[in-house]
From TrEMBL:
Belongs to the universal ribosomal protein uL22 family. Keywords: Ribonucleoprotein, Ribosomal protein, RNA-binding, rRNA-binding. The gene is rplV. This is Large ribosomal subunit protein uL22. InterPro entries: Ribosomal_uL22, Ribosomal_uL22_bac/chlpt-type, Ribosomal_uL22_bac/org-type, Ribosomal_uL22_sf. Transmembrane segments: none annotated.
Length: 134
């Protein structure tokens, strides 16, 4: 590896030490449905977001709640202390499309209608209020 690549790789590793995130990949829910849940908690304080997700009646909210708890645990692991009340917030959340399974559904007169079973990737970043990078 050349010196330039090595230096940029080291800089990337240092930047990752200061970011706290969790990823959920290949969730068998359409990205559109997951984005509705993501929009509910974007920019919110973590404890308030967990409450919103817990009492939401959307199926995707249970998965996002578990992912948010994982991101908070990652923050606690990197900082070697417990998060205090009101300290963390959801700094960034993104929902990207993943692979789509293509299936055929029987249709009249010997035809077949294509069914697309979509999936998505969710990434949540948490941060403290004093390290606001937005």
């Amino acid at each position: 590896m050349g010196a330039r690549k090595h230096n940029s790789a080291e800089a990337r590793k240092e930047a990752l030490k200061q970011t706290y995130f969790a990823k959920l990949r290949n969730v068998p829910t359409s990205p559109r449905k997951m984005r509705l849940v993501a929009d509910m908690i974007r920019g919110m304080e973590v404890n308030r977001a967990l409450g919103v997700l817990k009492f939401s009646n959307k199926e995707a909210s249970a998965r996002v709640e578990k992912l948010l708890r994982s991101a908070v645990a990652n923050w606690e692991e990197k900082n070697e202390r417990k998060a205090e009340e009101g300290e963390l917030f959801v700094s960034h959340i993104s929902v990207d499309g993943a692979s789509t399974l293509k299936r055929l559904r029987p249709a009249p007169q010997g035809r077949g209608y294509r069914i697309r079973k979509r999936s998505n990737h969710v990434t949540i970043y948490v941060d403290t209020l004093n390290n606001d990078n937005n």
